[in-house]
Every structure is written in structure tokens, then in C-alpha cells.
Amino acid sequence: MPNGKHWGMWGLNAGLACLLLCGLGLSFSRVKPYWIAVHRGPGADLRGATLSYAPLRGVRLLGAHLQQANLSYSNLAGAVIEGANLERADLHGADLSSARLSVTNLSRADLSHARLKHANLCQANLHGTDLHGSGPERHQSGLGIREAG
In a 3-state reduction of DSSP, which class is residue 39? Predict the structure, then answer.
């Protein structure tokens, strides 16, 4: 018959197993949107996805649905995101250097402190977009930003 010490060890092991499984569940919930972005990017439905700090350099997200997605501090350098909907997306601190964002809806998105050097934002909708700390004063070259009306 197990004594009290054995039951205590069983309880501790069960608790640790639960924590491990919960942690894996959280990891898998972040892996799926990343996999979709990398392998099924064009037209992908990633609304509200959490992709902060994601290594998405050169990813193709043409026409993707990224409304309210969290892409803060993600590496999107050289990404092709043309025609995508990033309304209210969080791109704070993201690296968008040389990214192609033409004809993209960035209305009310947070692009504060994002790296936009050589990014193509032609005909992008920037209505209400937070560009604080991301402007030409941070970069050596102009951005060619126009607000769509």
C-alpha cells in the first residue's frame, strides 16, 4: 500500500505533467499560424493570429487576411504582403525593410518603431496608422509613403 510520500510524489508528477501539456498546447497554438503564413501565405486567413517575434523574412502573404494580427517585432524583411488586409494589426517594432506592401490596407495599424527602409507602401491605406518612430528621420532614404483617401 503506498504511503503518504508516494501519493505526494504522484501528485507532484501529475502537476508537472499538466504544466508541460499546457505549455505544449500554447506552443502549438502559435505554430499553426506560423506554418500557415510560411506554407499557405497567399490569401491566408490569419485574422487575430499571434505571430510576434516570428522569423517571416521573405514570406509571401499576397491578399492575406491579417486584421488585428499581432506581428510585433516580427522579421518581415523582404516580405511580399501586397493587397493584404492588415487593419488594426500590431506591427510595432517589426522589420519591414524592403517589404512590398503596395495596395495594402494598414488602416489603424500600429507601425510605431517599425523598420521601413526601402519598404514599398505605394497606394497603401495608412488612414489612422501609427507611424511614430518609423518615419524618414529614422531611415536614411525616403519611404514614398502616401495616405490613400
Answer: helix
